Write a sequence for this structure.
């Protein structure tokens, strides 16, 4: 069995509403064990014998659509991958406020040309590093909520579906996945 975390994009932040009890039930009904959710924003940890993260994500997406009528992108990382993300943040030592550090998780690694062309809009003070399927973000002077360098912006510029979590959530999900 491998421990995974599924990250659902855009849940309970706009018009897409999903009770975490429903998410836990759905993931359990798919045959996964040790199902636990974190916060109300579509984070679920579970154990599975399935070794294909894309297959896991697709199964959760189909179940959400079939049972609840929700079209929600789902990204899956193993506990090992999530630990590597948490341990690889180039900005972690530069910021004490976890709301100013974020990670955008991407469905696939973006094309090199898209990464090379990625720029912070409007001269905002944002540092970013794209590493594989993650984008590390640092907002040293302000919060993510007022920035134009958002998940939607990253998706558009990189041409890849993504979902963003603040550093506090990344650390909590890493702990949830580890235990």
């Amino acid at each position: 069995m491998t421990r995974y975390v599924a990250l659902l994009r855009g849940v309970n932040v706009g018009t897409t509403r999903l009770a975490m009890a429903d998410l836990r039930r759905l993931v359990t009904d798919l045959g996964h064990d040790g199902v636990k959710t974190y916060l109300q924003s579509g984070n679920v940890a579970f154990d599975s014998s399935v070794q294909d993260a894309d297959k896991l994500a697709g199964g959760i997406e189909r179940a959400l659509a079939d049972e609840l009528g929700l079209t929600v992108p789902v990204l899956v990382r193993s506990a090992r991958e999530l630990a590597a993300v948490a341990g690889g943040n180039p900005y972690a030592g530069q910021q004490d406020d976890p709301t100013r550090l974020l990670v955008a998780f991407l469905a696939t690694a973006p094309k090199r040309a898209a990464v090379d062309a990625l720029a912070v809009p409007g001269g905002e003070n944002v540092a970013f590093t794209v590493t594989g399927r993650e984008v590390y973000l640092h907002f040293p002077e302000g919060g993510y909520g007022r920035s134009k360098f958002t998940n939607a912006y990253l998706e558009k510029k990189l041409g890849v579906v993504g979902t963003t979590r603040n550093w506090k959530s990344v650390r909590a999900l890493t702990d949830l996945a580890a235990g």
Notes: The chain has two domains: 2-81, 83-178. The CA atoms of residues 55 and 76 lie 9 Å apart. The chain has six helices and eight strands.
